[in-house]
Amino acid sequence: MNGPFIERPPCPPFTRQTAHRKVKAAQNAWNSKNSSQISLAYTPDSIWRNRDQFLQGREAIVEFLEKKWKKEHGYRLRKELFAFWDDRIAVQFWYEWHDEDGQWWRTYGIEHWTFEENGLMSKRQMSANDVKIEDSERWFGEGVEDVDKVVIEEKHW
């Protein structure tokens, strides 16, 4: 870990409750689309694999996220705790977005996170698939204020 010791609770080892809080904090941060603020949850030298892209460090994270949200309009995300152990958390997620042509997509994915003792994420691995959807199929559409209240059927878990 590089730089001064900065704590970002909850910190490992995780319990079910603290892992859940960490997941929902990440969900809220990503839904803000504030790339600079989001990057502060990661170590300065954090390693990422996002689909087929590999990057390292906060500057690369900010650049990646800014590019992502220039493509993914109307982005709304939900993350759920999948598993946890000691300093690791696995997350299942879904997000919806539309492209420049107005085509809606739902992205289904899994993330594996590894944390330093101070609660900053040192490694993030993400795998996901994009599925074309119609506006009428959206879960997080107009009028949905809280993505956590949307019922997601078992077939999507």
Spatial strand arrangement across the major sheet: 2-1-6-5-4-3
How many beta-strand runs? 6
CATH fold-level assignment: Nuclear Transport Factor 2, Chain: A
Text of the CATH class: Alpha Beta
Alpha-carbon Rg, integer: 16 Å
| Assembly state | single chain
Could you explain the architecture of this structure?
The protein has 157 residues and is of the alpha+beta class. The protein has a single domain (16-135), classed as Nuclear Transport Factor 2, Chain: A (Roll), CATH 3.10.450.50. It contains three helices and six strands; from the N terminus they run ααββαββββ. The chain has helices at 16-32, 35-39, 58-71, and strands at 42-50, 53-56, 73-85, 88-98, 104-115, 121-133. The chain has a six-stranded mixed sheet. The radius of gyration is 16 Å and the shape is globular. The model has no long low-confidence stretch (mean pLDDT 96).
In short:
This is DUF1348-domain-containing protein. The chain is of the alpha+beta class and 157 residues long.
